[in-house]
Design a protein that fits this description.
Radius of gyration: 21 Å
Number of helices: 14
CATH topology of the largest domain: TIM Barrel
CATH class of the largest domain: Alpha Beta
Strand content: 15-25%
Largest sheet: 9 strands, parallel
CATH architecture of the largest domain: Alpha-Beta Barrel
Oligomer: single chain
CATH superfamily of the largest domain: Metal-dependent hydrolases
Structural class: alpha/beta
Helix content: 25-40%
Length: 469
């Protein structure tokens, strides 16, 4: 179980957000934690910590939101890296992944998710957005409690102490020209009314650190009529709405044939996009689509290591930057569970494509540091992606934080003002000594209290399901 909540923390240095959402290092920072697990007061330049404050051993940074996760796919990480046929791409990977999806039980899902969530905490994430389309039993029948698998994820999050945003997924067909699901997609079937009811019931459960948004798997997997129905149901809904979009060129081509428009273009023409919407991947775009997203206030979620692993391609990151579209990151298929690696490869992919360095830096706008700009984007976009009112080290936000290990090898001897540069771009390492969620320590001195027993359950589960991979 997490430790008792401290009344206050005192950090020698902390990375605070200003009113404009810009991060900056401040010295000698006192952070008070309210009874609700949120920051109640943050004061810099306080030379002497009060008696009730815990004095931290290293710099303090905000925890990050993992804005896109499929927890069950952690059981598949590392098991799709061989090619036995003439070609391998996203679609062949997907067919193999479905074998795991068809086999995993609620108990096994809880074990896999708990292992994943411990790893995400160690990787700098304190909230995870579960794009949850694994709904029914292996035969495609609803469980007696339709939220059986949702509760397995919520129980895993509670076991570990991470925040969870559940996103039940509208998923009803195999493609634009396929009105029904394939047999190996039978566990995923959910209509608009189903996911609206699921989100309502999760939010109504008032589980600690759990909330729910809505998701649409993709335009190919949801009929326009169902998307319109969900829009009607969610008219007054203020939570997050997520959708996979334009991840693959084949998806874009199919959408053009079926609708006469590109995927993001179609969403914009329907008037669907607004600040609740988070477009996952958004890899293959044209400038007019980026402009439409910017004008709507919607955001994008980029998952660099998964997009690389699946051969998706590279997004137009400079275009998203120029348009001022909010950007968050996700671990998606969990080939990496490290937030810093996602940030690093967000810029590295662009460097390889454009043959320039520090693509994400913007010295003309006061952002000479690539790492600081990327980290600020991830923090600023986290609240909306997770359905939280605020995020980061600021009053009103949940008291989530990361204590950097100043003795970690990549940080040794570096000037303090370059800490984030080194955290993101000097690796490998174990940068997070301690992790705080809702004002309680869940990792102390690099160790989660339940790590070993969770790992044993995960290992046993992997032995049971490995043969289907």
């Amino acid at each position: 179980m997490p430790e008792q909540r401290p009344a206050a923390l005192w950090a020698p240095r902390a990375w605070l957000l200003d009113a404009a959402g810009r991060g900056q290092w401040r010295e000698q920072v006192l952070l008070r934690i309210g009874a609700d697990g949120r920051w109640s007061e943050i004061t810099a330049d306080l030379a002497r910590p009060p008696a009730e404050a815990q004095v931290l051993t290293g710099p303090l940074l905000p925890g990050l939101v993992d804005a896109h996760s499929h927890a069950f796919q952690r059981a598949f990480a590392g098991l799709a890296e061989r090619r036995e046929s003439a070609a391998d791409d996203f679609w062949s990977w997907r067919d193999r992944m479905y074998r795991v999806a068809l086999r995993i039980t609620p108990e096994q899902l809880r074990a896999v998710a708990a292992q994943l969530y411990v790893e995400l905490l160690a990787g700098g994430y304190t909230q995870v957005c579960e794009f949850h389309y694994l709904q029914h039993d292996g035969g495609g029948r609803p469980y007696a409690d339709p939220l059986e698998l949702s509760w397995a994820l919520a129980d895993a999050a509670a076991d570990v102490g991470i925040g969870l945003t559940l996103l039940p997924v509208l998923y009803e067909r195999a493609g634009f020209a396929q009105p029904a699901l394939r047999d190996d997609q039978r566990r995923f079937a959910m209509g608009a009314a189903d996911i609206w009811r699921a989100a309502r019931d999760v939010n109504g459960s008032r589980r600690l650190l759990v909330n729910a948004g809505l998701a649409i798997h993709s335009l190919r997997a949801a009929a326009p009529e169902s998307i319109a129905e969900l829009r009607r149901l969610a008219e007054g809904f203020t939570g997050a709405i997520h959708i996979h979009v334009a991840e693959q060129t084949a998806e874009v081509d199919d959408c053009l044939r079926a609708t006469g428009a590109r995927p993001i273009e179609w969403l914009a023409k329907q008037g669907l996009l607004d600040p609740r919407w988070h477009l996952v991947h958004a890899t293959h775009t044209v400038p007019a689509e980026i402009d439409a997203v910017a004008n709507s206030g919607a955001a994008v979620v980029i998952c660099p290591t998964t997009e690389a692993n699946l051969g998706d391609g590279l997004c137009d990151l400079p275009g998203w930057f120029a348009a001022g579209v909010p950007i968050t990151i996700g671990s998606d298929s969990h080939v990496s569970r490290d937030a810093l690696e996602e940030l690093r490869w967000l810029d590295y992919g662009q460097r390889l494509a454009l043959r320039r360095r520090n693509i994400s830096a913007a010295p003309q706008a006061g952002w000479p540091s690539t790492a600081e700009r990327l980290f600020a984007l991830a923090v600023n976009g986290g609240a909306a992606a997770a359905g939280e009112p605020a995020w980061g080290l600021q009053p009103g936000a949940r008291a989530d934080a990361l204590v950097a290990d100043a003795r970690d090898a990549p940080l040794l001897g570096l000037p303090s003002e370059r800490l984030l540069d080194a955290l993101v771009f000097s690796s490998p390492g174990k940068p997070w000594r301690d992790v705080l969620v809702a004002g309680r320590w869940v990792i102390r001195e690099h160790r989660h209290a339940q790590r070993d027993c969770i790992a044993r359950r995960f290992e046993s589960t992997m032995r049971a399901i490995w043969g289907v991979c």
